[in-house]
Every structure is written in structure tokens, then in C-alpha cells.
Specification:
By secondary structure, this protein is α+β, with helices and mostly antiparallel strands. The protein folds into two domains: about 170 residues, 3-Layer(aba) Sandwich (Creatine Amidinohydrolase, Chain A, domain 1), CATH 3.40.350; about 240 residues, Creatine Amidinohydrolase (Alpha-Beta Complex). It is built from twelve helices and 19 strands. The longest helix has 24 residues. It is elongated, with a radius of gyration of 24 Å. The model has no long low-confidence stretch (mean pLDDT about 95). Bound molecules: manganese (II) ion (MN).
Length: about 425
């Protein structure tokens, strides 16, 4: 699987090229404590490895690709302290890359490539993944390439991100299976929340029922969970989850299990006491209809922007029917985010601007409505997989109709 991906990537590069993808390293939080290491997902996508300080090297000479993996030298004393260093044969077995180079020999290895394989090429194209969120962010690729360019200042430095993105956008069968597993655990965890929900319990308590199922299934979180009751459900990225879910309020839960780095991203909204009020039901059913409508409109050739525009048109009609657009109120007073984002190895997965959907894409459909004054926040989010003529709802098993939710909560109280 990883080998196939690397071959596809190699085919995208020019006849002569050199590419480096770094796994990254953990950064310090306070003192000698580090944030948990989170591997560069493109590195993981290409190698199946999730260890720090590794470099995947792809060499394409006269159209012929070969590759290597640079890893840290196994240090027995270090292994005793922190464990986790990987032996060359383990790295080889997981990634399928034969040539393993020790970190302390990397520059002599690279020099052999530059001096003997690419010595006739005046402006070699060299690629690295320069993805970052803000201009001042210093990423490992940048530090590495700076050092590289000091030694070989005549090369052309290129960003490999667009190539990696276009590969990662189209999911393989194995990836769909992992996403389904993550979604399945998310379902179990949401049901655990629903069955334990009762009026006046803490949002944090509800969250703990979700976390318990993730932990027992060896899953992590796709992102910090949002468990917002009443007015908190109208705050898009509320994650304090420290208020009491009062009787007769809705709880908006936007959360997901992550399995082998594949992320579910699901939102379900349910009444904490198990019964929707008539007004909550009215608003909820508009969002549910929106969710189903957008899902029915997915097909190759469309863009996520088009889907969002369709949702806004839909809301214009539905909200004016119930009088919410009077006195100069607009749809954007009740709904102001996008309806979709790509999903995969990252929760907000990589994409290309104005990307046109094609079979194999996986993304979220997450319409919401937020009535702050009425303390009603509703969002219903599913994860879909684009097929030749529509889409498959990967999260179909997670209940979302008013009737199903009320029946489940009534029949499973404190189970
Ligand atoms: Mn989402």
C-alpha cells in the first residue's frame, strides 16, 4: 500500500528530482515536558511510520525512482529511558523501504546522491513539504532545506504539498475501512452519552462517557470534543465543556474517534432529558432536512462551495417560512460556517483551492442553525464518501431522526 503510494508520487515528479519528507518531532510545552508527538501525515501516508526525526528520501534519476529512509540510530540507553526507538529492520518491515540510512550518516548519503547521480544537472528540482499555518511558523522541512541549500545552493526548491494533497484527496479502500472503524467507535461513544444523559448533569460528565468508549477501543480523539448545552451549542468551537446541561436544553456534541490516524468527525444534537420541545424539534428538523438535501446533491464535478451555496438557498426558504428572516435578519445570523471540509488523516484534511469533487473523496456534511437568544444550537454532521454518481454516508449507522433519538434515550436510560 505504501509502496504504491510512493510510486504514484514518483510518477508526478519531473524526470530528475529529489524529494525529502520529514516526520517531524515533538515540541516542548513547559520545562522538559513535550507536547505529544504528532507525525506529519504525509510522511505517515507514504511510509506507515509514526516516529520522530525520520526522513523519507525519493530519488528520481532519468525517470527511474528509488528511495531511502533516514532514521535515528538505535540507542540502547535511550531506549531504556523513553523506549520507542525503532530498529532498521522494523522500519523496513513496516514501510517496505529497503534502504535505511542512519541519521548521523545522512549528509554523506545525500552528498553521494548530489555528487554522483545529479552532478550533470545545473538546477536540480528538490522537493519538500512546506505546509504551514502562519508565516512565522518554523517547520522542520524549512530548517532541513536551509541546511541543504547551504551545501548545495544551485538547486530549485519546490513545495511537494500539492502533489501529496492530490494523492491524499482520493481515498483507497483500506483508508475507507479505517475511517469506518473510527466512525463505528464514535457511534458507540455517542450512544453511551445518550444513554447516560439526564437533566442537570455536567457537560464534562457527558464528555467522560464519550471518552470512556474511545479509550477502551484504543482510539484517540480527532480533535478536542465540543459538548455544548443550550447557549453553548451556539458557539462554534466551544470546548470548555464545564457548564451544567440544564433541563429542557439541547446538547450539541461535535466529536470524533481517531483510529490509526484516520479521523471521524461527527456532530449529533440531542435533548439532555431525552425529549425535544416543539420548538427544538422544529429547528432540528430543518437542519436534518438540510443534511439530507445536501447529501443527495453530492456528485463528482461539484465543489464544496457549490454545496454550501445550495444550503444557504435552502435555508432562505425554510427560515422565512417560520419567520426567522423578518426585521432584516439574514441566514448568516443563524448559520455562518461552511457545510463541508475534507476528512482523512487530518480532521480538516488537505485540499486544493476550488477543488472539484471526484470519486474517492471523503468529506463532512455539517449544516447547523444557531439561535442564540433561544439558546438553541443544532448541528448534524455526517461523513460521506464520493462515488461515481453520488455518495455513500459512512456514518449512516449513527441515529439522527427525532424519533430514533427519543426512542433510544427512552429505552436505554442509564444502561
Ligand atoms: Mn467537521
Amino acid at each position: 500500500m505504501y509502496q504504491k503510494r510512493r510510486e504514484k508520487l514518483a510518477a508526478m515528479l519531473p524526470e530528475n528530482a529529489l524529494l525529502f519528507i520529514l516526520s517531524g518531532h515533538a515540541v516542548y510545552s513547559v520545562g522538559d515536558e513535550q507536547y505529544p508527538f504528532s507525525v506529519n501525515r504525509s510522511f505517515y501516508y507514504l511510509t506507515g511510520l509514526d516516529r520522530e526525526n525520520m526522513i523519507y528520501v525519493l530519488i528520481k534519476k532519468d525517470g527511474k525512482p528509488s528511495d531511502a529512509l533516514i532514521i535515528e540510530r538505535y540507542d540502547e540507553m535511550m531506549a531504556k529511558w523513553v523506549g520507542g526507538k525503532i530498529l532498521p529492520k522494523e522500519a523496513r518491515a513496516i514501510s517496505g523501504i529497503d534502504q535505511i540510512i542512519m541519521d548521523d550518516e545522512k549528509w554523506s548519503f545525500i552528498h553521494r546522491i548530489m555528487a554522483y547521480q545529479f552532478d550533470q544537472i545545473p538546477h536540480l528540482d528538490v522537493y519538500a513539504d512546506f505546509t504551514k499555518q502562519e508565516p512565522d511558523q518554523i517547520i522542520p522541512s524549512q530548517i532541513f532545506m536551509k541546511e541543504f541549500c547551504e551545501k548545495y545552493p544551485y538547486v530549485n526548491v519546490n513545495d511537494a504539498a500539492a502533489y501529496l494533497t492530490s494523492l491524499r484527496l482520493v481515498k483507497e479502500e483500506e483508508e475507507i475501512a479505517l475511517l469506518k472503524k473510527a466512525i463505528h467507535v464514535t457511534n458507540e461513544a455517542i450512544l453511551n452519552m445518550m444513554s447516560h444523559a439526564k437533566a442537570d448533569m455536567g457537560e464534562n460528565e457527558l464528555e467522560a462517557y464519550f471518552d470512556f468508549v474511545l479509550k477502551t477501543n484504543n482510539c484517540g480523539h480527532s480533535f478536542p470534543s465540543i459538548v455544548g448545552s443550550g447557549k453553548n451549542g451556539t458557539v462554534l468551537h466551544y470546548s470548555d465543556n464545564n457548564q451544567v446541561a440544564k433541563d429542557n436544553t439541547l446538547v450539541l456534541c461535535d466529536l470524533g474517534a481517531s483510529y490509526q490516524y484516520y479521523n471521524a468527525d461527527i456532530t449529533r444534537t440531542f435533548p439532555v432529558n431525552g425529549k425535544f420541545t416543539p420548538r427544538q424539534k422544529q429547528i432540528y428538523n430543518i437542519v436534518l432536512k438540510a443534511n439530507e438535501y445536501i447529501m443527495s446533491e453530492v456528485r463528482p464535478g461539484k465543489t464544496l462551495r457549490q454545496l454550501n451555496n445550495m444550503l444557504i438557498e435552502f435555508y432562505k426558504k425554510e427560515l422565512s417560512k417560520i419567520g426567522l428572516l423578518e426585521n432584516g435578519k439574514r441566514v448568516s445570523d443563524y448559520y455562518w460556517h461552511g457545510v463541508s471540509h475534507m476528512l482523512g488523516l487530518e480532521t480538516h484534511d488537505v485540499t486544493l483551492s476550488d477543488y472539484v469533487l471526484r470519486p474517492g473523496n471523503v468529506f463532512t456534511i455539517e449544516p447547523g442553525l444557531y439561535l442564540e437568544e433561544e439558546e438553541i444550537g443544532v448541528r448534524i454532521e455526517d461523513n460521506v464518501f464520493v462515488t461515481e454518481d453520488g455518495c455513500i454516508n459512512l456514518s449512516e449507522e449513527i441515529i439522527k431522526s427525532v424519533e430514533d433519538i427519543e426512542a433510544y434515550m427512552a429505552n436505554n436510560k442509564d444502561k
